[in-house]
Amino acid sequence: MPKIKVSGQGECEFDGQFSLLDALDEAGFDMPYSCRGGNCGACEVRLVSGDVEEIQDPVYETDSGYILTCSVIPLSDIEIELV
Ligand code: FES
């Protein structure tokens, strides 16, 4: 199972949840979000390391190096940083 590290906060594992955001929610991290559908950008975080795959086609466009936690799943161990 891919490990998810949140810089300065801790880590958890991804265990087949719908999205990275769902996995972080389940593990008790207080993550920012609003729409959960790729529209608002509230869940944007910086991807420090690792690979992710989009599981929905977001309307909101992130800058390079940033991801929407509601719209991706980890493909490898990853580290993210809240912005
Ligand atoms: S929660 Fe709105 S884009 Fe992720």
Structure in words:
With 83 residues, the protein is mainly beta. The protein has a single domain, classed as Beta-grasp domain (Ubiquitin-like (UB roll), Roll), CATH 3.10.20. Helices cover 8% and strands 34% of the residues. It is built from one helix and seven strands. The strands form two sheets. A five-stranded mixed sheet has the order 2-1-7-3-5, covered by helices on one side. A hairpin with a 3-residue loop joins strand 1 (3-6) and strand 2. The longest helix is centred in the first third of the chain and has 7 residues, at 20-26. It is globular, with a radius of gyration of 11 Å. FE2/S2 (inorganic) cluster binds at residues 33-36, 38-43, 60, 68, 70.
CATH fold node name = Ubiquitin-like (UB roll)
| SSE ordering | EEHEEEEE
The CATH architecture can be given as: Roll
Q: Say which molecules are bound, naming each kind only once.
A: FE2/S2 (inorganic) cluster
* Poorly predicted residue ranges: none
Largest pleated sheet: 5 strands, mixed
Mean pLDDT: 97
Shape: globular
- Helix content, binned percent: under 10%
- The order of strands across the largest sheet is 2-1-7-3-5
Strand content: 25-35%
- Which class best fits the helix and strand makeup? mainly beta
Radius of gyration: 11 Å
Distance between the termini: 25 Å
Oligomer: single chain
